[in-house]
Amino acid sequence: MRLRSMTARDVQPVKYFAAENLSDVIVLAGPNGVGKTRLINGLVNCFQAPINNAQVALVLEATSQSERTEWGKNQLDTRNVPDAQKLTQTLQKSRRRSNWESSVVNFEE
């Protein structure tokens, strides 16, 4: 799956953050104290518990036929409870370490 857009509200110190049409690699950059780490934590929290997440909303695009089949469509929007439930089911599936399909990978430097 691919993150297509993200909206965050009141992820302190950030009041509002929105990014659309995201590429395969996303880089957050800025001076210390502006909220980069909190935005990343909000994003990770949304993946862990997407249902009724009041602070962060995500739009995800399927990148494999198995995701399209499982979801019944090409995109999920976590503001939509049935979509958030489908995302939870996808991420909680048991898989081998060598199979990164339908997984979330976060690299921090």
Explain the overall architecture:
The protein is of the alpha+beta class. The protein has one domain. Helix content is 28%, strand content 23%. The chain has a 4-stranded antiparallel β-sheet.
Question: Any chance you could write out the topology, listing elements then pairs?
Answer:
Elements: E1 2-11, E2 14-19, H1 36-48, E3 56-61, H2 65-71, E4 75-77, H3 81-91
Antiparallel strand pairs: 1-2, 1-3, 3-4
Strand and helix order:
EEHEHEH
Number of strands: 4
Q: Please give the alpha-carbon distance between the first and last residues.
A: 22 Å
Rough outline: globular
Q: In which range does the helix fraction lie?
A: 25-40%
Structural class: alpha+beta
Spatially, the strands of the biggest sheet line up as 2-1-3-4
What would you report as the Rg, rounded to the nearest angstrom?
14 Å
Strand content: 15-25%
Query: How many structural domains can be distinguished in the coordinates?
Result: 1
Task: Supply the key terms.
four-stranded antiparallel β-sheet, 4 strands, 109 residues, globular, alpha+beta
How do you describe this structure in short?
The protein has helices at residues 36-48, 65-71, 81-91; strands at residues 2-11, 14-19, 56-61, 75-77. The protein is an alpha+beta fold. A hairpin with a 2-residue loop joins strand 1 (2-11) and strand 2 (14-19).
